[in-house]
Amino acid sequence: MLVEHCDTIWLRAHSKSVTEPISDSDERYSSDKLYRLHLQAPNFWSLTLYDALTASGLDNGQPFPSLNSHDRPLVNADGSVDLYVGPSSPPGKEANWLKTVPGKGYFTILRLYSPTEAYLDGTWKANDLEEIH
Hints:
By secondary structure, the protein is mainly β. It has one domain: Jelly Rolls, CATH 2.60.120.600. The chain is 3% helix and 35% strand. The chain is built from one helix and nine strands, in the order ββββββββαβ. The protein has one helix at 117-120, and strands at residues 2-5, 15-20, 34-39, 45-51, 66-68, 81-86, 97-99, 106-113, 130-132. The chain has a five-stranded antiparallel beta sheet, with no helix packed on it. The protein has a four-stranded mixed beta sheet with strand order 7-6-3-9, with no helix packed on it. The longest helix is centred in the C-terminal third of the chain and has 4 residues, at 117-120.
């Protein structure tokens, strides 16, 4: 996972971005497959899909190519959130889903606002997108 330093022009103070152009195995994510991001983030977070060619928000037919903690996603019993990225939503998980466009490349950016000390010192790391079969 590539971590960028974000300044107050790009994001407000005390924020970090995590960019996910490729998986840990150096394979690009496919817009034809469904992935899950299991996220345990205590503060405000946002996951956004970007078009791989233009670097603008992915035109996927949804009102916004992003989900964040204020969108009221379904939350697991332990307080974590499972977000889904793919061409179709898993049944009952529409509130936690970002649509990809088959055949169109994309990348994700996970923004963590007011990240905890565990993130800043490297003892906490966001999970990678995992393919769901």
